[in-house]
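seq:
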Amino acid sequence: MFPSTYVASFEAVLFDLDGTLIDTEPSAARAVKSCFENWGIKVSLEDAAFVTGRTWEAALSYLFSKYTPPVSIAAATSMILDQYRQTLKTELIVVPGGVEAVHSIGEAYPLALVSGSHRSEIEWALGKLGILSRFSAVLGAEDYPSSKPAPDGYLKACSLLGVDPKRCLIFEDSDAGIASALNAGGWVVAITGTNHFRQNTSGAHLQIPDLSHVTRQWVADLAVRAHGTRIAREQK
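struct:
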């Protein structure tokens, strides 16, 4: 039984974008590999996939520490982003149930989105899907100081919403993103159906293949399990 002062509900629901609402991470990795190959550098798929869950700047800093492209990080980022954005115009793949889940959950909970993509890309994608207006806060790479797995983005989103991170449900897909959400104190659901690059999702509290069964009632039911488990853990 819950303590009388305890309300078994989430205060807000937060989403990642790439790999969570849209399946774009293979396109991002291909853009990285293609541009590096144009510079005469063969990048391993594992290294190209380092962009998964992270900001472009963090990913390129890592790649530049291992390879030596004949351009600056800023120039490389610009070139890769140009190619990636062109791909998105023809390959915007929605995670099953993503649009419907946002609409349903947004009728009952404040929503925020925290992504390593730039805000212009995020707003374009959400606009194409018709769900931009559902989000009370949209944070891109330029809106918080440290890339995932640091918790900065999620902590800032919670602050903007005026909610306690420990009372938030967070949907993620990558190991960096899951770590970020956990580091912020959230209750984390991992989307596994977009796991193209062997992301470790085992740290999440729950794993589901996609969002096809996720509704506001699903979230409400999950809250009882999630917070009941947390209380039991804290009382041990």
